[in-house]
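Look over both lines before class:
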Amino acid sequence: MAPKPPRIDLHGLATDAGAAERGSAMGPEALRIAGLAETLAELGRAVEDKGDFRALPGPRTAERRRREILAVAAEASARGYGTLKAGGVPVFMGGDHSISIGSVSGIARWCAERSQELFVLWFDAHGDFNTPTISPSGNLHGMALALLCGEDEFDDAFGGAWRQDVDPANVTLFGTRSIDAGERTLLHDRGVEVIDMRTIDEQGATVPIRRLIDRVRAAEGHLHLSLDIDAMDPTIAPGVGTRVPGGLTYREAHLVMELLHDAGIVGSLDVVELNPFLDQAGQSARLLVDLTASLFGRQIMGRRG
């Protein structure tokens, strides 16, 4: 008899404090309405919805946004670590991409304790490798990956017990097509792998993803997928505040999810930047549910060994 797959814990992080555009705080509920838990249960998975950590009350000042980002980071880190320690798979429902500061930190702490190498696949139209001095917008969702990779421009408040750095050499950006000049230099200097849309146009989605799968398998590593809806082309995923034309197609994204499932290397997931206020009749939310289903085993036809 095949072993029972681990329970999936859904963690809602209802915040848009890291972004300029309001609305992604409604993302977790939109994913629920689109049937995320039910879809995963139909695949034979035990699913437990752990509820939302919600935005702090009060006016949207710079200081309140900062406090909220830090509170979410500490909560996400603790939740992710706790789920892994209990033998489950954490799925973080954002919220803007700043939630990954905490979610990935918790995963990294778990991996460090087990001496397991952590790899991060960052599905995103943007580099998210800005720092406070080079960021054009100043919004933290565009700096999350730089902070996780240990850039030293962030103040001591971002160095709490919840925080654990990630090796930039183990980070892969995928679907990227909008990178600022300053972060382009940093990404190159830090050795982050960037699979941009030109690479995907030339090689397809399969070739670079298979290379990553081989790397993770060789290291017996843990792969964390951080899935930003803006990696997709906005014609099929309009519900996002930072639309960039020329993104991944429906089948390209599903193929990657299917290959990752077949490889059995993904141990945690972020689903971020869904903005229901900007969506069209739930189109983007349903797409994210479908992609998550492919990642956890939904197939057109079963594959025979």
